[in-house]
Structures
1.
Amino acid sequence: MRVAVVGKGGSGKTTTSAVVARTLARHGHRVVAVDCDSNPTLGISLGLGADDTERLVARREELDEGESEHAPSWDELIDRFGSDAPDGVRLAVVTRIQNPEPG
């Protein structure tokens, strides 16, 4: 299952995403939350903490500035740009996903 949360600024997308992600994970689902927002704060909403969230944002900025390379696979994207959040949620902070793998 894939769930995308979209809407205008300030409508509660980040909060809703965090609640849905943690609820699904608590019920035994494998959850990968992907934060593509220009102001990526999903890590904080998931309970990851400000320092870990900022570390993920810095990695994304390195990629945007050409100081890092894109991940060639989904697993490497999660390893390189992701972190474990509470309740078993895995979070990745990315700008975009190029050439997504099917499935």
Note: The mean pLDDT is 87.
2.
Amino acid sequence: MHYVMNKKVIERKITPLYPMRINKYLALKKITTRRGADELVKEKKVFINGKLAILGSKVLEKDVVEIKGAETKKYLYFAYNKPIGIETDSPREDLFPLGRLDKASHGLLILTNDGRITDALLNPKYFHEKEYIVRTLNKLRSSFKQKMGSGVNIEGYMTKKCKVKILNEFSFRVTLTEGKKHQIRRMCSALFQEVADLKRERIMNIKLGNLKPNAMREIKDEELAIFLNQVLHQS
């Protein structure tokens, strides 16, 4: 299987099911999103075996796909410290947040313009660690760590096992691999603990560190390489 851009052939070691629609093919190759692929087709920039592709065109495994005259998009990635009291949003119009933090929570958000990684990071079929520091209003019960870590029934859904470390009588660190809406707050409530403060400190290898509230820093170099490798090359 070959993909050609600017007359350079790039080998891709994947074994998808063929034939497949051209927009799915380009999204699978991490070239663009399906919607972006449709736009490239409409702009008559996509060719299959030298012939102009149309919306709905299908690709076989032996086919050669070319994109001609397409500008290479510069992907940007930033760590952002969302303050308490604001909705999940991006301070820059050219970036969007990957995932959410509720208004009462604060901490790490990843901002990007890379639509390729949205599903790969947020789809529940994939497992990506997210680490939080939680402070409670009432003293943690002696059975809290064991029950929280084993999974909690929240309104009929049994959460996956998670890592829990008790920091003191009123706070703990928890690492999840899933992200149901208000999950930590709902888990705590089910265990008769009320959350006073919830802060996200890490998403995979990206750490909040010393970043001040409402500040952002670029994710780059080795940190970015590790992050993208984990997101884009997961099985």
Note: The domain at 129-203 is CATH 3.30.70.1560 (Alpha-Beta Plaits).
3.
Amino acid sequence: MPTSFAGKRIVIGITGSIAAFKVAGWVSTLAKEEARVTVIMTDSAMRFVTPLTFASLSGEKVYSDMFADGPDISHINLAMDADLFIIAPATAHTIAKLAHGLADNLLCATALATRAKMIVCPAMNSRMYSHPATQANIAKLKELNYQIIEPACGMMACKDEGQGRLPGWEQVQEIFLRSVSAGDLSGQRVLVSAGPTREHIDPARFISNRSSGKMGYALARTAYRRGADVTLISGPTHLPCPEGVKRVSVQTAEDMRTAVMEHFPQATVIIKAAAVSDFRPETKYTDKVKKEQAGLSLGLIANPDILQELGERKNAQQLLVGFAAESSDFLSEGKRKLQKKNLDLIAVNDITREDRGFEADTNQITLIDHQGVIELPLVSKERTADLLLDRIVTLLQTRRESHYLQ
């Protein structure tokens, strides 16, 4: 299946830093994901990695000399063709040139000529990075609408410790994907809940459920890629927070309710993908209950129905999406909850199958809204998230058109 990079024209400028070898991996990954990657190298960059390396990985010609192509105006052609322009690693020297509009090599000339989204990834010794001149130049680039990816901290090639390392692919790919997306969720403030809750019996024991959080995290990740400002309220999970997403960690259903209600008023789209425990122990013990003291029954009381409360509180500009984990009567239960909880859309999961729902990497959901029913295919949870967001985008567009006609 084509990725979000498929068919995108990406220009990557390489400058003279030892971190250039890391970018070879980026080029390889982008090419495998069907992007068209063109590399421009400075003279200093070619002292670290050969042009042949990047040509082999990208399958495209590597450019370095402003005048090598005779009458062809390389910097203009490359600038006009780009969907995204990345400079990585970006040395202090090249950052200074860009900040002052210099164009004495092919890379800087092309950067001045392009109107594509520009992303600069500084990589240098931490002392050079923190120098006031470098910081002033980076501030100038931000004023010129360059996006700067902050370098990571760690040990440098020179054995110094500090900020200046080129970030890893896992971090930068999300920023790149956001830059090449259609941005159809730009301006939307998306609130996603994910994962299970834990309802504590004593300091050692709790009741919970099988939710891994994978579906909610996929929704948060893909919504960010599509331009949204995303807040993720997450129960206990081992999943890393998606790049660019604000995460609020909670434990219990009551914690979840408090966090959701705090962020709910600012949200335009609310997706309740968390598997919130329906019940909690009637008594929570402060000390561990000894085996000899424990009874064979556990008193339970109902937790608040957060989704129901959101349905009662939402305004006409907010779009509310719920999830329902069901083992039978999928359509009837989904339609009942859609109406009862005043939802705009509900996604129904079949939790009896091992290849979907809890803990699985794939999913197959049924979408139910007031226009009808959509059966989505069995695909990865990330792809499922994109298909669900496609439907949300359609509902938002329909709402805008309806408001305009009024």
Note: The CA atoms of residues 256 and 262 lie 10 Å apart.
